[in-house]
Structures are given as structure tokens and as C-alpha cells.
Write a structure and sequence with these properties.
The complex is a heterotrimer.
Chain A: H1 2-21, E1 26-30, E2 38-41, E3 46-47, H2 53-69, E4 73-75, H3 94-99, E5 104-113, E6 116-125, E7 130-131, E8 136-141, H4 145-161, E9 170-177, E10 184-191, E11 198-199, E12 207-212, E13 218-223, E14 230-235, E15 241-243, E16 251-257, E17 263-270, E18 273-280, E19 286-288, E20 296-301, E21 307-312, E22 319-324, E23 327-332, E24 339-345, E25 351-358, E26 361-368, E27 375-376, E28 382-388, E29 394-400, E30 408-414, E31 421-422, E32 428-434
Parallel strand pairs in A: 2-4, 2-5, 3-5
Antiparallel strand pairs in A: 5-6, 6-7, 6-8, 9-10, 9-32, 10-11, 12-13, 13-14, 14-15, 16-17, 17-18, 18-19, 20-21, 21-22, 22-23, 24-25, 25-26, 26-27, 28-29, 29-30, 30-31
Helix pairs in contact in A: 2-4
Chain B: H1 2-26, H2 29-53, H3 88-94, H4 101-107, H5 109-112, H6 157-161, H7 170-175, H8 180-185, H9 192-206, H10 218-222, H11 232-246, H12 258-269, E1 284-291, E2 297-307, H13 311-328, H14 340-343, E3 345-350
Antiparallel strand pairs in B: 1-2, 1-3
Helix pairs in contact in B: 2-12
Chain C: H1 2-20, H2 50-58, E1 60-62, H3 72-87, E2 91-98, H4 105-126, E3 133-139, H5 150-156, E4 158-165
Parallel strand pairs in C: 2-3
Antiparallel strand pairs in C: 1-4, 2-4
Helix pairs in contact in C: 3-4
Classes of the chains: A mainly beta, B mainly alpha, C alpha+beta.
């Protein structure tokens, strides 16, 4: 009797517990992860034709450097690899790559025939044991091998991060030599990683703040070759230049292309007062956008061309303002302590980068387009003039050191503030401008 | 009369006593055990959590490109500067070229865990080869050396625990080489390695209770016998009950304690790499998956829900989450086997909001 | 007050000229060039020379940090510059504005322009013909002093009046 009772009791309890157990999946929330570079491996691409061994190796190196240079990836060197890739089509031994903790793997093959170069590649998610996206094949000339490597790296980057890359791009800047009180400046253009340097002007006249066109084929800049700062445009391919403004009564500077490439924003000083103007390139007609006794300069379009962000000291100190692209009411967006200048709208449209001066220090910072979420990314004696990489993730800027021996060089930093590093340059440089993806 | 009263009284007392101390609570000893286990665990986990929280996700600057670069410490602007954040920690950490301390922190808790009782690996009851598939050694906490039907079982349990010894995993992993070919030929399956066996194994497990023949031995080893006390018949029934409840296959005991849940959370989060500058950092994603009894993922890790970001950002966030779960499982997540039913299906929400540093 | 200052300057100028000239005499009158008494044309003593303008009158004014308005010293200098220009109508001037390095590039260009303009405005108000005056800014591109201290910065924040012989009018 008791036993029966007991059994019944137990049974009911068991059932109760079974019922309890059946209440859906275990749910947990994770809010803290790690920020660390993703380990990846790029074994040398397979040379699939005679004489393509060296170029395969070089290609693989450039790809690895592009990825590592972002600070988001960390290469696992070949010395640690367990298996090698000898054929592009062979199955991947994921276990071997897992064993060395490579989370991403890039395999590729290279064929050279005459002057033609063909590069194909695949990206693998090692731990999921599958390919990320589809393999791709690029065709080009042997001379353009670096660009191909950058294109491969862009594809790899984009598959893993889900965003566009920025490696197949160039930077135009002012190359500087000489002492501080006798600086020689000339326009220079290079691949974003410092390769393929080329000069666009000589150093006979001061040149300042070059800016790429939206298609990367032309560069606007300010030059003193007439004795007064005027705006010029130079065609990058032909290196032919043309003056856009030649108004002897005024000075023009701080030019920027509109997103459609048809007009140029600029700052013009008449009677000592700097205001913003827009000039239609084809007709040369100028339209005034601001009119006031304060200094208005350093304008930058939003990526959709509807708005302009600029700096003005109408409040007494340099601050950032946004107005419609036809002028009109301007809204202030900077409110922190210190002075704000050189605003540049991100190609992603979500952020504005700027230079901030406060208590004797300079900072490169970003804020949302309504002025919120201000974050400073750098701090030094003199940082200024940010420019965005085409994917809106990286900012390049000028850093100058103090004193008589001071020099200007270029630095880059990730939008998160990580991975601050110096750009490889011959000599000094300033005023960088990043091209769009080519 | 008196005798009757005495007997009745005695019987009633006995019944009451038995009800109070016998049957009713028999069901509890398992929880007692479990509680005992979790007490130890919780402390450790909390210690781990504290240690875990202390270092903010460290930034591993793998690119020592510029020796000459000054370490950037963005100046802390004055209070009045409301919207401005102080990214100093990042910058400071960016200067350190060392690997993340996070990982090493976590290795601590795992060893001790309860199961000293466990090392008795009584039985390769391996009729259940099906049930205890893959996994070579479940390191310490697991009472059972899964006898896996595969050649893999290379007992290097300790080495598999810590992340930094990943190279040491090689022997294990390469031992798995046999499984790998499956992956290669079936490119689309995520964690294809796991798909096949666990799924089969799961079937009988799902039938739960009755399959005690499959598991039972494991249990008794861990559960010191309190259940087997007292009343023989009752004990028998109880034994049946307790072994049932303890059987991993069966609907199991009480829900997981917060310490155990935290254990899983901490295990996964150290493999969750967040790219704070990307648009995927705006996405909160929930992934769902199933675990076999050894704590390994079986089947796909599927996207359950996502908020924020566009499609591409969601995909990236999902892939990161999936990678995190797959990378950190090692030989299986450490979860109490007796509560298997509570953690067979898991949904994890990855929310990077706090990491976005404003 | 203005007249007094002008007179004072004239006298001072004469006195200075007197000091330099061993012959003890100096005035606007012309002597034949062989005479040691005459100030050499183009020399500092020649009040009509550029050298005189640069070194005696002072061809530059300095500004305070972030300022583009003339301070008291600046006003005095610009006054004499204006007078000189009016007395020497064959010259035109380009006023170059500069800034120190403690600012961003475009803003400093604009600031230099403001400073130059401040000088020009005052000259015009003194009676110098506007068409004779142009302004130019170098921003922070042409520092005089290169140390990164206030002593150097103070020298760099300047507006320099550069004379060229031009078509008068």
C-alpha cells in the first residue's frame, strides 16, 4: 500500500519534472566579446604556369599585408602551416588549418602568359568548413599585378567583414621636403600602401590640400603659382592642369568636388572675409552659398550631395555646421570644448571626421551627422586634415611634430580608434586625400 | 485499545515520517548533489567572471608596424565636454603587442569542477556507442571518457582546455582526420563533421526515460548513493527514478543554475570576435543550435533572429556568432550531463552594443 | 593727437637721418650725388626708399593669438605705412597675412587673409587708394621662426606690407 503510494508519488514527481524540463531551449545573452585580429592564412598562391612562381609569391605577400595592415586580421605565417596548397582545386584539409587556429584561409592560383596575368582565389571559413562566397577570377596585365593583389584582398576583406574593402585605391598628398621655414611642397600620388609614387607638380610653387574627384581621375588643389592662392584641377592620367579660378581680386582655396563631379565647392576670400561658393565646372559660373563677416571654409559634401558640412567661426570660435547644398540656414553640430575644423563626410554617410583643438592638443575625431557620439581617435601636438578610405572604416591624416626639426608625415587609424600607424612615405607629407575604389 | 492507538499512531507517524523523509524527498537528493556541484562551480565561475570583467576586451595589435609611433592616448577632455568619450583604454591597449589575457583566464575554472567522483570511468557501456559519439576526452568535468567509436580518442584531455595550447590540439585534431574528408566533400554543411553521428545518437536519446539501459552506469558513478538508501523497494523505485532523471537522455533534473549558464556564456564569448568599427557591430543576432550530450554542436547553427543593420551586416554578425560557437566548443561545452535536457537546445543572443564604445 | 604723432615721426625721421649722415644734414632736398651729405637714393636714409619703409617705418605688424584686429602698436605702424604710401605714390603694395602653426590649414589661410585685410582697411581709411593695395594670405605656410613656442609664434602672426613699383593710380 505504501509502496503503491510511493510509486505513484514518484511517478507523478517524475512526470512533473519531465514537464518542467520541457520548457524551451536554453537562452543566454552574450554582451562581451573579444576584439582581436582574426587569424588567417594565405599560403602562396599556386603558380599554374611557367615563370609565375615569383609573381605568385609577391601577390600572396601583398594580399597578406593588406589584410594584416587593417589591424582586423593577423596572418599565421607559412612556417606554422601544417598542410600546403599545391593545387587550387584540391579539397581543403580543414583540420590542419583549424589546428593552427586559422579562421580564414585564402587559396589561389596564378597564370601568366605573355603580358597577361590571371589570378583566381577562394576564401574559406575554416571552422565552419565551408567556402565564403564564390571563388573569383581576375584578368589583367603583369604590370598591374599589385592592383590585382589589392582586388583579391578587397574581396577577402569584404567576404569576412561584410563590408567593402579599400585596398585598390590611391592617395594624393603634398610631398614635403626642406626645413620648416623653407618647405618645398609638391603634389604626389601613390597606391594607398605607398607603392607606385608619382609626382603631379614640381616644387616651384606652394601647393595645398589636393582632393580627388568622385571617379578618381582628377585632383583639385590650391596653388600659389600665380603668387596668389588659386584653384587648379589636374588630370591624373595626363598630368595636365587647368586653373579653375583666376580672380585677381580674391583668393580661392579649400576646393572639393560634388559627388556628381560637376561642381566644385570652395572657400573664397574677398575683402578679408572667407565665404563658401559653388562653381559649375563646365560653365565656370559661381554661386555664393554663405554671406557673413565670419570665416566659412573647409566645406565637404554629404555622399548624396544634399548637404554640406563646413567650419565657421560665426559663434566666436571655429565650429562645425551643416547646411543644404544650396546654402541657407546652417545648423551647428559641434558643441564640445575646443575648436573644430576640417570636417569631412564619411563615404558611408554615417559619420563626419574632423580636427579638434583643445588645450594645446590636436585630435582627429568622428561624430555622427547630428553631432552626437563624438569620439576622439588621436591626440598629439598637431594632427589635422582627415580623409576617409573608400569604405568609411579608416582615416588618414597629417601629423606634424613640434619644434624646428618638426616634420609632417601621414598616419592612418581605424574608425574605432585602433590600429594607429604611420603611412610609408619617402620623406614628409601632408594633406592626404583618399581616392574611391578603382 | 491502546495498542491499536499505538499501532495506528506509529503507523501514521511512520507514514508521515516516510513521506517527509523518504519518498517525497527522495526526488531531491539529485538536486542536492547538483547544488553541491554548482556551489563549487559558481564560486569559481564568479571568480572567473570577475577576472573576466577586469580586462576589457583587449585589443590585440598584431601589426607592430611602427616602432617609432608614439602611443596615442587621446587626451581626456574636460567634463564640460559632454559628448566626448575617452577612448584611452583602447589606445593604451593598442600599444601592447601581447596576446589577449582573456583566454588564459578562462582555463582556470574548468579543471577542478566537481567530478572527482567521476574519474571512475566505470564502463564503456558501449552498446551506446551511438550515444556517445565522437569526442575523445571530455576533459575533467565530464565524468565519462566518451568511448568514441572512432579512432580519435586520444586522451590528452588537459591540453584541450586552454586556448593558447591550440597547437597542442593538433594530435587530437589530426586524429580526427578521418572525419574531415566528409567536410571537404560537403562544402555547404556547417560543422558537417558533427552532423551525421549526433543526429543518429539523438534519436534514441529522444526516447528518453526508458533508455536507461544506455546510460545508467555513468550516472551511478557520479551520484554517490544516497538514493540507494532506506527502503529497498522504495529504493529500487527511487533508483530507477533517480537514474532516469540523471540519465542524460531522460528529461533531466532541475534547470541549470546561473553559474552553469554563466559557464556556457563565458565559454562562448571568448571566441566571439567583435569588429567594433564595422556595421555588423550594430547588429544583435540570435543563433540557435543543438548540443549532443558531450556538449558539442550537432547540426547547423541557424540564424534565429537579428535586429539592426542591413542584410550584409546581419550575415557578417551571424557568421561571427557561428564561428564563436564552433570555435569554443573544443571537445564539447562543459555542462552538467544530468541536466542535458535543459541544454540540449540552445539559443544565444550576441549583443555588441556595450562593446561599441559609444 | 594724430597730428602730434605725425609731427613726432617726421621729426624723429629727420633726426635719425641726421644721425646717420655724417654731414649732419638731411632733408628732402636734392644734392648732387657726389656730395657725402646726400642720402643715397635707395638707402635706408632715403625716406622714399623701400629700405626705409622696411626698416624705419616697419613693414610688418604683429597680431595677438587668434586676433585679426590691429593692436595699438600695429595701428601706429600702419599709420606710418599709410603716410609713406601717400607720400610715395609710385608704389603699390601687397599685404601678406600669416598665421602661426597652431591651427588647421584652411582656417589659417582665412585668418591670414583677415589680418592682411585689417591692415588694408586701415590704410584705405587713412586715404591710400584702394586700387594700390592687394591682400594675400600664406596661412601657416611661411613661418619666420620655427620653434614651437610662443616667442616664435608671436613673430609668425604677422601682416607684411610688400612694396612693388607699379603703375601709380
Amino acid at each position: 500500500m505504501i509502496r503503491l503510494l510511493a510509486t505513484l508519488l514518484m511517478a507523478s514527481m517524475m512526470l512533473g519534472q519531465m514537464a518542467l524540463a520541457q520548457n524551451g531551449p536554453l537562452r543566454i545573452e552574450i554582451t562581451e566579446g573579444v576584439i582581436e585580429p582574426l587569424p588567417f592564412a594565405v599560403p602562396d598562391f599556386v603558380a599554374e604556369s611557367q615563370g609565375s612562381n615569383q609573381i605568385s609569391k609577391d601577390l600572396s605577400r601583398v594580399i597578406a599585408e593588406d589584410l594584416s595592415g587593417t589591424g582586423l586580421f593577423r596572418e599565421i605565417p607559412a612556417s606554422a602551416h601544417i598542410s600546403t596548397i599545391t593545387h587550387f582545386g584540391s579539397p581543403v584539409q580543414f583540420a590542419d588549418w583549424k589546428a593552427i587556429n586559422a579562421q580564414a584561409l585564402v587559396t589561389g592560383g596564378v597564370t601568366v602568359s605573355g603580358n597577361n596575368l590571371e589570378v583566381k582565389f577562394r576564401v574559406w571559413d575554416v571552422f565552419a568548413g565551408q567556402e565564403l562566397g564564390n571563388g573569383l577570377r581576375f584578368k589583367g596585365t603583369v604590370d598591374g599585378w599589385r592592383r590585382m593583389a589589392h582586388k583579391v584582398a578587397d574581396a577577402v576583406y569584404s567576404r569576412i567583414t561584410g563590408e567593402g574593402g579599400y585596398f585598390d585605391s590611391r592617395v594624393v598628398y603634398v610631398s614635403e621636403t626642406g626645413p620648416k621655414n623653407d618647405r618645398k611642397k609638391r603634389l604626389a600620388i601613390m597606391d594607398y600602401d605607398g607603392a607606385n609614387l608619382q609626382y603631379l607638380t614640381d616644387s616651384s610653387a606652394i601647393v595645398l590640400a589636393p582632393r580627388f574627384s568622385p571617379t578618381g581621375d582628377r585632383v583639385l588643389y590650391t596653388s600659389y603659382e600665380t603668387g596668389f592662392p588659386q584653384i587648379y584641377v589636374v588630370d591624373v592620367g595626363s598630368v595636365r592642369k587647368k586653373a579653375l579660378s583666376n580672380d585677381t581680386g580674391s583668393m580661392s582655396f579649400a576646393p572639393r568636388f560634388s559627388p556628381d563631379g560637376k561642381s566644385v565647392l570652395m572657400s573664397v576670400t574677398e575683402g578679408g572675409n572667407a565665404d563658401l561658393f559653388r562653381m559649375d565646372i563646365a560653365s565656370g559660373k559661381r554661386q555664393r552659398l554663405t554671406n557673413g563677416p565670419s570665416i566659412e571654409t573647409a566645406p565637404s559634401y554629404s555622399p548624396d550631395g544634399s548637404k554640406i558640412v563646413f567650419e565657421s567661426d560665426r559663434s566666436g570660435t571655429q565650429q562645425l555646421y551643416i547646411m543644404g547644398s544650396n546654402g541657407g540656414e546652417a545648423t551647428r553640430i559641434s558643441f564640445g570644448q575646443g575648436r573644430y575644423g576640417t570636417p569631412v563626410w564619411s563615404p558611408r554617410g554615417d559619420l563626419i571626421a574632423f580636427t579638434k583643438q583643445n588645450k594645446g592638443r590636436f585630435h582627429i575625431g568622428v561624430m555622427r551627422t547630428d553631432g552626437s557620439d563624438e569620439r576622439l581617435l588621436t591626440s598629439s601636438f598637431l594632427d589635422e586634415g582627415p580623409t576617409w578610405a573608400p569604405n568609411g572604416r579608416v582615416i588618414m591624416f597629417t601629423r606634424e611634430t613640434r619644434g624646428a626639426e618638426g616634420v609632417s608625415v601621414l598616419y592612418s587609424v581605424d574608425v574605432s580608434g585602433r590600429n594607429l600607424k604611420r603611412v610609408r612615405l619617402n620623406g614628409g607629407g601632408s594633406d592626404p586625400s583618399w581616392s574611391p575604389l578603382q | 485499545m491502546h495498542i491499536g492507538q499505538y499501532i495506528s499512531g506509529f503507523a501514521h507517524a511512520g507514514l508521515i515520517g516516510w513521506v517527509m523523509f523518504g519518498g517525497a524527498f527522495r526526488a531531491d537528493p539529485p538536486p542536492l548533489e547538483v547544488t553541491g556541484v554548482s556551489v563549487i562551480t559558481t564560486e569559481e565561475f564568479e571568480a572567473v567572471l570577475k577576472a573576466q570583467e577586469a580586462p576589457t576586451p583587449s585589443t590585440d595589435v598584431a601589426v607592430p608596424v611602427i616602432p617609432e609611433a608614439e602611443i596615442e592616448t587621446p587626451a581626456v577632455t574636460s567634463r564640460a565636454d559632454a559628448p566626448v568619450d575617452v577612448p584611452t583604454p583602447t589606445e593604451a591597449e593598442a600599444g601592447e603587442p601581447d596576446a589577449t589575457p582573456d583566454l588564459s583566464d578562462l582555463t582556470a575554472p574548468e579543471p577542478q569542477d566537481v567530478t572527482d567522483e567521476a574519474p571512475v570511468l566505470p564502463t564503456p557501456e558501449v552498446d551506446t556507442a551511438v550515444v556517445i559519439p565522437e569526442r575523445s576526452l571530455r576533459p575533467v568535468p565530464r565524468p565519462v571518457p566518451r568511448v568514441a567509436p572512432e579512432p580519435v580518442a586520444q586522451p590528452k584531455p588537459d591540453t584541450t582546455i586552454s586556448d593558447e595550447l591550440q597547437e597542442a590540439i593538433k594530435p587530437d585534431e589530426s586524429g580526427k582526420a578521418a572525419e574531415e574528408p566528409k567536410e571537404e566533400t560537403s562544402p555547404e554543411a556547417a560543422s558537417s563533421e558533427i552532423v551525421t553521428e549526433p543526429k543518429e545518437a539523438d534519436a534514441p536519446a529522444a526516447s528518453a526515460a526508458p533508455s536507461r539501459s544506455v546510460r545508467p552506469r555513468v550516472r551511478p558513478a557520479t551520484r554517490p548513493e544516497p538514493s540507494k538508501g532506506t527502503d529497498a523497494a522504495v529504493a529500487a523505485a527511487l533508483a530507477e527514478a533517480s537514474s532516469e532523471s540523471s540519465t542524460p537522455a531522460a528529461p533531466s533534473g532541475p534547470p541549470l543554475t546561473s553559474g552553469e549558464k554563466d559557464g556556457l556564456r563565458v565559454s562562448v564569448q571568448q571566441c566571439w570576435v567583435v569588429d567594433v568599427g564595422s556595421r555588423a557591430a550594430d547588429v544583435t543576432v540570435t543563433v540557435g543550435f543543438s548540443l549532443d550530450q558531450s556538449g558539442k554542436v550537432q547540426g547547423d547553427i541557424r540564424l534565429v533572429n537579428a535586429t539592426g543593420g542591413d542584410e550584409s551586416a546581419v550575415q557578417t554578425a551571424y557568421q561571427s556568432a557561428r564561428r564563436a560557437v564552433l570555435r569554443c566548443q573544443k571537445t564539447g561545452y562543459e555542462l552538467p550531463i544530468e541536466k542535458y535536457d535543459h541544454w540540449r537546445d540552445v539559443e544565444i543572443t550576441f549583443n555588441p552594443e556595450k562593446m561599441r564604445r559609444k | 593727437m594724430k597730428y602730434l604723432t605725425k609731427a613726432a615721426f617726421l621729426v624723429a625721421g629727420l633726426a635719425l637721418a641726421a644721425c646717420n649722415d655724417t654731414s649732419g644734414l638731411a632733408s628732402g632736398t636734392n644734392y648732387d650725388t657726389n656730395s657725402a651729405i646726400t642720402p643715397e637714393a635707395g638707402s635706408v636714409e632715403d625716406a622714399t626708399s623701400v629700405a626705409h619703409f622696411q626698416q624705419v617705418i616697419g613693414d610688418r605688424v604683429l597680431f595677438d593669438v587668434d586676433q585679426s584686429t590691429l593692436n595699438e602698436t600695429g595701428r601706429l605702424t600702419v599709420l606710418s605705412q599709410s603716410n609713406w604710401l601717400m607720400a610715395n605714390a609710385e608704389y603699390i603694395a601687397v599685404i601678406e597675412g600669416h598665421a602661426d602653426e597652431q591651427g588647421t590649414r584652411e582656417y589659417n589661410l582665412a585668418l591670414g587673409a583677415r589680418r592682411a585685410s585689417a591692415v588694408r582697411e586701415m590704410m584705405i581709411s587713412q586715404g591710400v587708394a584702394a586700387t594700390r593695395l592687394r591682400t594675400l594670405s600664406y596661412g601657416k605656410e611661411r613661418p619666420l621662426e620655427v620653434c614651437s613656442e610662443e616667442t616664435c609664434y608671436a613673430q609668425n602672426r604677422r601682416a607684411v606690407t610688400v612694396l612693388t613699383a607699379g603703375v601709380s593710380g
